[in-house]
Amino acid sequence: MKDNTQSESNTDNIISKQSAGGSYKSADGPPKKEARRTFLKSSVGVSTLLATGASLTAASGLHAQGLTPLQPTGGIDNDYRALQAANLKLTMAEDHFGETILLQDQESNEDEGRYEDDRFYASYSKSLPCNQYGEVQPSAFRKLRRALRRGREEDFNNIVLHALDSRPLVSPQASFKFETCGLDSHGTRMAPSHTFRSAEIAAETAEVYWQAITRDVPYLDFQTNSLIGEAVADLNNFSATPGATNFGATDVDLLFRGETPGDLVGPYISQFLLNDVIFGPVEFVQRYQQPTTAQDFMADTANWLNVQRGGTPAEPMTFDPVRRYIYNGRTLGEYVHRDVSFQAYLNACAQLLALGNDAVDQGNPYINQTTTQEGFVTFGAPFAVDLVTRVANLAFTGAWFQKWRVHRFLRPEAYAGRVHFNLTGSRNYELHGDILNSNAVQKVFSQNGTYLLPQGFSEGSPTHPSYPAGHACVAGACVTALKAYFNEDYVLSDTVQADAEGLSLIPYNGQALTVGGELNKLANNIALGRDAAGVHYRQDGIQGLQAGEQQAIAYIKDQSRTLKEANNDGFYLTKFDGTRINIKNGVVSNV
């Protein structure tokens, strides 16, 4: 056992020696400035070698089929195409390397160390062997952690799952994947997740309880529904009120919404999730299948424990035969249950392209600037579609690094199990008093006879850690790409909202809605829609959006170096924190 511990703590010097909980730290080794000099020296050597080889082997004249890879391309520099391409990639790599080694260490909340002697009860452990309280077998958790620290195939093969498991862990080795364009997954930075005992996670868990209780309340009825009023009153009793607040308190207009200005204006659901979508010869209406009302899962201890152990869910889900617009938490939760990663943003892209050039960023060189050309492969529709889809899986790699290698935070269903067994006197956990005294928890108990969080999905959460939300990271990346290509200030016309049954769209005649605001709302609808199903906390969504944004900005930065059009103004966009930036020729600057 001693040898194993030493081997784990010394794996490639990745994990800090002072962090028993497994905080991710920068590698020990030479100072960062020296590391950069070494990298630059080696890359300059590669460039010199490429240049020498090109000058010795370049053919003169044209082949019958066109330029050879080492043929001069003409123009001012008369350089060789293959060398230009290689140097461009080296420049991008040097740039990302230089920025990454200057980053601060990525920290965790240290809960793994704090509760290591208490069966790691604050950490993610779904599908691993556990006792009747859902507490993981410590040796099994340590094997998982060892694999995630060392990254060795034999360690992943030695991970132990529960005997009843039918749902393996989702792609933990993806946390080691490299990226060849844009920001590497390990270059993302996030705040540590809230600690298990914090007032913040207590409040965010209560918010998820209230989202479960109010799943069938139409967004159109929020102003008058009594359950919504109870949710507002209860959350305002917490030490840390979740979400956007007005003088420190939430209200009906802020409840369950995102935290950007666009999220707080107009209907709860973004226009891009409501309006029809046209894909070439295909047009479809955004009415979707939803589960039948008043149908929730894992509210009893037997089904809850089966799912914690990775068992096949025993509770079947039934569906409403009528397809509806997204009009309440249940329909939103089911949309993000079955959506494809970039689906909502590709739909939004198609909707925006249909609006014409006024909806495109006016810095686009083919908007009112030339009569001899038009955008297509660059600065045209295929370019926009490529941006929004390409960054989606890139964002997943950042999410998976943070989920598996750093935070390993437990899901809301597991936190609620801690609440249940604490309140029934079976166990004693370091929970904040706010959640134990919440009206939401008491209301769930009066309905179900347990304090467990009713889930929107029969299987509960996916089998990977909670923080950050993968949906949120993708949302952050894809919406950032859309904001870079389109005109955020464009005012949308004929705006709508779903009626109280989700059967039709009715006019919205309130404050004007802009492309930028509705894109931010779209991102938060998807990110926080997972909360409506009970599988994430608010922190997972809000922080996930920012992690995805980081990777999208780095990708767009790389793409901006590849463009020939000298008269482009670059890409302007507003970040989720309100900062306005421009990305041009590989440089990101504040505006």
Please sum up the structure shown:
This protein is mainly α and 591 residues long.
Shape: globular
CA-CA gap between termini: 56 Å
The name of the CATH superfamily of the domain at 199-564 reads Vanadium-containing Chloroperoxidase, domain 2
User: Architecture of the domain at 199-564, according to CATH?
Assistant: Orthogonal Bundle
* Average pLDDT number: 90
Please mark out the parts with pLDDT under 50 across 5 or more consecutive residues, or reply none: 1-30, 51-65
For this structure, what is the CATH class of the domain at 199-564? Mainly Alpha
- Helix-strand sequence: HHHHHHHHEEHHHHHHHHEEHHEEE
Number of strands: 7
What is the fold named in CATH at topology level of the domain at 199-564? Vanadium-containing Chloroperoxidase, domain 2
Number of helices: 18
Radius of gyration: 26 Å
Strand order of the largest sheet: 5-6-7
Largest sheet: 3 strands, antiparallel
Please give a structural write-up.
The chain is mainly α and 591 residues long. The protein has a domain of 366 residues: Vanadium-containing Chloroperoxidase, domain 2 (Orthogonal Bundle). It contains 18 helices and 7 strands. A 3-stranded antiparallel beta sheet has the order 5-6-7. Helix 7 crosses helix 15, helix 12 crosses helix 18 and helix 17 crosses helix 18. The radius of gyration is 26 Å and the shape is globular. The N and C termini lie far apart (56 Å). The N terminus is likely disordered.
